Amino acid sequence: MNYIVLDLEWNQPIHTDSKSNEITKSKYMLFEIIEVGAVKLDENLNEIDRFNKLIKPVLHKKINPIISNITGIKERDLSKEKKFPAVFEEFINWCGEDYIMCTFGNQDIYELEINMQYHNINIPWKYPLKYIDVQRIFSIENDEINEQRSLEMVCMFMGVSGKNAYHRALSDAIYTAEIMKKMNRNNFEKYMSLDYTNLPLDRSEEKEINLGTHLEFLSRSFKDKEEMLANKDIYITRCPVCLKKCRKKIKWFSDGAKYICMARCENHGLMEGILYIKKNYNGYYIVRKTTGVDEERFMDVVKKRNILKEKRKIRRIKEKEKKKKFND
Description:
Structural class: alpha+beta
Strand content: 25-35%
Number of domains: 2
């Protein structure tokens, strides 16, 4: 198996006003890829080959000055290049048969698939697509799970040097590949990431995926939020270790941004479940994460739930008093 270390550069609308025609046209592709860079490594992380292509944009034809300033890419550089479908076909053929994608951060895979959908290109990866997010694994290895270090900062920390400028696709792919060579390779498989763009087609494809730090579940798409939240499957909490259903200690409640529950596995202790409601172009879907926690985290969640309950109680009383005053 080979590692395909991928990096992308993309253009975006110059005008950010939501009423502008450019934003309206870009509803389904806000970021248009203008460069693909990749490094192919063998199973021992030895470099095999490199891929680098510029792409002629078809939607955002004028290069945003901010993008041009960061990357150095000008409109004249792209005018004679091939369009995305042709370049993508070259890239996917270059990747070969047996490989896993590697990126620095989680946005490149997402934007690649959004560009594919815009150009009516069939996504070649079946669900679930697992990939290596080098930025995430670096954070885990250095106990900075809530931090997101830039590529340049990680290179400095890891002692990776080079003459190429950052913010060009091939250069950033090369730097990412060099970082990977200095990391614990066992963590590549242990801490995989899951792509959210390519969702399960139906209920039969929905499954729990062990991503090392937690168990993750992606639902299929639902046309509306009410239908999705009425689906009992999304509330199941399983132990990341034994996959058995856990008994709820605190039922699901909303903190405004997500839903949280606490449960207990009879063999492996306390578990925290988190539900994120997300939306794509096909409708709504759920990301559910389940992680083992300690008593301290359990008490934090208890405290959060009680505070929210008290706030809701006070709000109901105020609304009742307001209504009574209005009727009087």
